[in-house]
Design brief:
The chain has a four-stranded antiparallel β-sheet with strand order 1-2-4-3, sandwiched between helices. It has helices spanning about 5-10, 25-35, 55-60, 70-75, 85-95, 100-110, 115-140, 150-155, 190-195; strands spanning about 45-50, 75-85, 140-145, 165-170. About 45% of the residues lie in helices and about 15% in strands.
Length: about 200
């Protein structure tokens, strides 16, 4: 399948087949995809937690609002965290990045208020979410991005010190009866000429 065909076929999964598991090799590949994700100045202000433990998933389901069943039935929940400790982030880039990148941060990002710096971190994490969803489609894995969760409670359950949960993605394989599949509910998007402009 071409990438366009994959994008036409992928959808937000609403019901998972709890008995169908993702092969461990594919999980490792998805972990590598996230490790390789792009970010501004290669800042990488993130951590990604793969949760397949049944007891932990049950706890997460209880703080996932309408997404509870997806958390329980999917194979794995991937939690996308941004770094929440600016000093720790600055230490990280001093150790890992070239001087030019560190100087960019110091000149253009560091002078901003803390809230804006963390919002910049958030943008980098969402780049990784997009890459991850595309990788899942390419690998034939179904996915559900979920902002409908309680981030602070996710942090408590996962002992997220110095990091903050932004979004979680359930991954696994769809139930054949899932009503949201494109063959049951056609994909709905704005018209091409409303969102694409050529200059």
């Amino acid at each position: 399948m071409s990438f366009i065909e994959l994008m036409q076929q992928r959808y937000t999964t609403k019901k998972y087949n709890a008995s169908k598991k993702i092969e461990s090799e594919k999980i490792k590949e998805l972990q590598q995809v996230l490790q390789l994700s792009p970010s501004s100045i290669n800042s990488q202000p993130w951590k990604f937690t793969f949760v397949s433990d049944t007891n932990t998933k049950k706890k997460l389901s209880e703080v996932s609002w309408l997404n509870a069943s997806k958390v329980i039935e999917s194979d794995t929940i991937v939690v996308f965290n941004r770094i929440d400790n600016i000093k720790l982030f600055e230490q990280q880039i001093e150790e890992e990045l070239p001087e030019a990148m560190v100087n960019y941060y110091k000149e253009f990002i560091k002078p901003k208020p803390e809230e804006e710096i963390k919002a910049w971190f958030d943008k980098q994490v969402y780049l990784a979410v997009g890459v991850f969803l595309s990788a899942c489609a390419e690998m034939g894995i179904d996915a559900t991005p979920m902002e409908g969760i309680e981030p602070k409670n996710y942090d408590k359950i996962l002992d997220n010190e110095n990091y903050a949960t932004l979004v979680a993605v359930a991954i696994g394989y769809r139930d054949n009866e899932d009503f949201n599949q494109p063959n049951k509910k056609p994909k709905s998007r704005l018209a091409f000429n409303k969102v694409i402009q050529t200059v």
